[in-house]
Amino acid sequence: MTEPLLTEPQLTEPLLTEPLLRVTDLAVDYKRRRTVARVVENVSFDIVEGETLGLVGESGSGKSTIGNVVLGLVPAAAGAVIFDGEDITHASPKRRRELTSDIQVVFQDPYGSLNPARSIGATLAESLVASDATLTRKEVTARVHESLDTVGMVASVAQRFPTEFSGGQRQRIAIARALIVRPRLVVCDEAVSALDLSIQAQVLNLLDRLRRERSLSYLFISHDIAVIGHLSDHIAVLDRGRIVETGTTAEVIDHPQDAYTRLLLAAAPVPDPAAQKKRREAFRTQRAEYLASTGAVTGLVSTTRL
Amino acid sequence: MTTRRGTVFRTLITNPVSILALIWLAIVIIGMLIVIPLISRYSPTEQDLAATLQLPSAAHLLGTDSLGRDILARLAWGSRVTITGVVIVAVIANVIGATMGLIAGHFRSGLDATFTAFADMLQSIPALVVLLSVAAVTSRNVTVVMVVLGVLMSAGAYRVFRASTLNIRGELFITAARTSGLREGQIMVRHELPRLLGQLVIQSSIIASLAIVVQVGLGFLGIDAAPPNPSWGGMIKEASTSIYTNIWPLIPTSAVVVLTILAFSTLGDVAQRAVLGRRRHNGLSRAKISRSVAKTAARASGATVSATQVASTAASAGAAAGAINPMLVISDLTVSVPKDGSSVKLVSNVSLTLLPGEVVGLVGESGAGKSVTARAALGILPAGATATGSVVLDGQEVLGASEQTLQKLRGSKIAYIAQEPMAALNPAYRVGNQLIEIVRTHQKLSRKAARQRAIQLLETVQIKNTEHVLKAYPHQISGGMAQRIVIAIALSGDPDVIVADEPTTALDVSAQMQILDLLRTLQKERDLAVLLVTHDWGVVADLCDRGIAMYAGEIVEEAEVAPLFAHPRHPYSMALRASDPHAQKRGGRLHSIPGVVPPPGTWPSGCRFADRCGFATDACREQAVPLELIEDRHAVRCIRVDEIVVEIEELRHESVTGERTAVRAEAVEHDALERVTREQAAADSAAVESAAVERVTIERVSVD
Ligand SMILES: Nc1ncnc2c1ncn2[C@@H]1O[C@H](COP(=O)(O)OP(=O)(O)O)[C@@H](O)[C@H]1O
Ligand code: SF4
Ligand SMILES: [Mg+2]
């Protein structure tokens, strides 16, 4: 423990650029009956404080698995997850619980992620008290109201139950639950995918405002590259468990290098009959190209995936 | 939706059968166990040899037994032994069963295997032998015997609680609780245990009825209360010895025993059905259409084109001209459900027409009434709902039709594709077997021929390795593949009309693109009429000939796709399209429609969109707005439809000459847009602000 004296001067510089989250060479295995399948391989990325990384790929490509490793819900088979300089790849359950006040999550399904038998207030308070047991009741209530306010809901919502709210409203509540502990990183796993498009826009705006106000970082996971583009600073494209392209949002969306990225871009329908017709044709071309370049069999390309 | 626990308790106190059971148990517990011993003139052991084997009288309400003892008093005192025994068994079995089940189901791993092995062991023990030996060893100590019975019965309870916990454990809110930092113990107690309460009621009732059977059996064998103290089992035994002299004492005694057993098993049964039923129905079930509705429907079906038919502009124009016979005509459809004593409309006065080979998109936000409308086309209404108006499918009235008629229509004339493909497939059976079964309900075919047909169907939906797919279980296939199979099932009866309710919403964009492609191909090949429900204008643009926008239970705009996209005329259509993230530029805020669709029962009396409309004026809120034809084949429900065109023109001009509006809007946006969602209270003032915002939304769209 004499080292700090020596290293201190050197440390100040690199600290500035050290990312909030660094994932290196991550691999994840799932056991299936008797066999072991590697579903994520060689995945590395950084998220700098206050920035958003969009992780895009079709379903089954491993996006949620990566998010779950960051959250500690799924173990890593290889590689490391470094949060704020600390290796949390194999953190103890106790350390994991402490980390929940730094790393939070908003799930896709706004219907399943709230316990229908608990009031909104109880759900929010539970999350807060778990992170800090020293808070008084009054403080907890104040924080519950404050977090509802941040997502644009009135305090009386706390007494009501999840079934009374629409999908978009529930997703706001799920965001309030994530933010009440004042985390630094939020994993948004398909956080808007289950919502109507018009409501997606509302929630994306909300996430964007909160990020700016609190310099939050997001790991934003979605299958829809158009949605990802609205919120992300950087994008990583995931194909069958591997990252095939990374770059700034503008680079990836406006000048995609990889055939798979181009395929994803052509897949999202636009509300304009003429433009959509062109997209459809582009999709067919891209698909042929991708097939030729990789010979791969995925949901995007073949109808035979099981 | 209520919690399962709420459903179970509510069912128990509303179902007539279980009410009877509860009343009986109340009589036994309050009357026999507590009140009668306090007020009875007789002691249960008091003999009156002058009055043996009497029939009921004022002195002895249920008569007397062979020793002249009062039967009612003996039943009452005897209930003590029985009820105590039942409570001991139920408590022990449930406490052990639920605790172990919860732990095993929650943690799985090694504990699970150990506990399950323990339960196996308990269940393989010959219970009666054990009970009799225990009785012998403890010199007939009933309490100990009941404790042992409780332990033995905990194995069954354990299995049930373990299975329920496994189910609950997979729910997303449990994962959410974990990522909130809750300990496993807290998750079990706060989130999982409360969900087991319904199961607890069921198990307690089943265990109680079984416990009484065992108890009475033991009493019959003389293993319970020491004579002359009464017990139900003992009383039956005594009564049966004098059965040839006088049968009477056996009657009230066995009646009480049987009724009590029945009461418990009935409660268990009703509770069980409440839990299962909730899972099965899950919202929608077959319609119970009232007689009056059927009559209205019949009347309406007589007239092919009614006044309200103006809604269905494009097609009704064609139909009226006698050009083509429509495939599906919905006219003036109103669907209501009872709520808190009154009736609430889910959709009101919807009329639409679908021509052969035509693809019509029904578009709007969740809760607009799209699904209710689409399902009505198949004669499916929400549980308890009533409908007025008519739904005519290829000349045949659907509303009020018999289940038999509907069964024939569904599949052969009209088919349904739901949003969640996995939900349409039974996880327990291979895809092939399910497909073959369905093929055989449509056609009388041998299994082999049906299999051939199933393979054909899979090829129709462009599945290549059919053999492989037929052998797969639903969980082994992707969502896109599952939707193809559901489409194959829909096509199996060779229908003319397909109702597809958000067929691609649950899929990722790439699978969506392919399913849309498939639908387009099939539609062309088979000249299908398709009613496509979606919230995505992109899907409408991709596939449809005509679009119908719905809002708060009614149609607000209907037009052919080209004009609908080039010149949408209703503010809702414009705003809905403008808020699609796929169509918007990156950077800066996204356009969105503030607020939410008002739920049924809270619709404004004037224009239902007024609270969220950027063009609303006082006049809009005054009275209901009619749907009117503004051009050939283009209908709009907005009283300001012409003025709006001018206003948008002005706004566009303004923004071209200066950024004034845009700048003002940016400022308003930050505050207003998010906060408008703050419940209805804020809605009024916010509508004023959002008016400014939305104008710009529309203006930007027209500039883009
Ligand atoms: N079984 C039901 N009981 C009561 N209300 C229902 C039932 N089914 C649907 N609704 C309500 O009817 C309205 C319209 O629903 P729906 O047709 O599903 O809308 P959409 O398909 O446009 O999302 C919603 O507010 C919904 O909550
Ligand atoms: S302008 Fe008036 S009538 Fe037209 S949609 Fe808006 S509120 Fe309704
Ligand atoms: Mg719907």
Indicate how many domains the architecture of chain A comprises. Answer: 2
**How large, in whole angstroms, is the Cα Rg of chain A?**
21 Å
Distance between the termini of chain A: 55 Å
Largest sheet of chain A: 6 strands, mixed
Q: Tell me which protein chains meet in the greatest interface and how many residues each side has.
A: A-B, 81 and 87 residues
CATH superfamily of the largest domain in chain A: P-loop containing nucleotide triphosphate hydrolases
**Highest CATH level, the class of the largest domain in chain A:** Alpha Beta
SS content category of chain A = alpha/beta
The percent range for strand residues of chain A is 15-25%
Average pLDDT of chain B works out at 80
Question: Per the principal axes of the C-alpha atoms, what is the gross shape of chain B?
Answer: elongated
Number of strands of chain A: 10
CATH architecture of the largest domain in chain A: 3-Layer(aba) Sandwich
CATH names the topology of the largest domain in chain A as Rossmann fold
Multimerization status = heterodimer
User: What is the name of the CATH topology of the largest domain in chain B?
Assistant: MetI-like fold
On the 0-100 scale, what is the average pLDDT of chain A?
A: 86
Q: Outline of chain A, from the CA principal axes? A: globular
The distinct ligands, each listed once, are: adenosine-5'-diphosphate, iron/sulfur cluster, magnesium ion
InterPro entries (chain A): AAA+_ATPase, ABC_transp_ATP-bind, ABC_transporter-like_ATP-bd, ABC_transporter-like_CS, P-loop_NTPase
Pfam family, one (chain A): ABC_tran
Keywords (chain A): ATP-binding, Nucleotide-binding, Transport
Protein name (chain A): ABC transporter ATP-binding protein
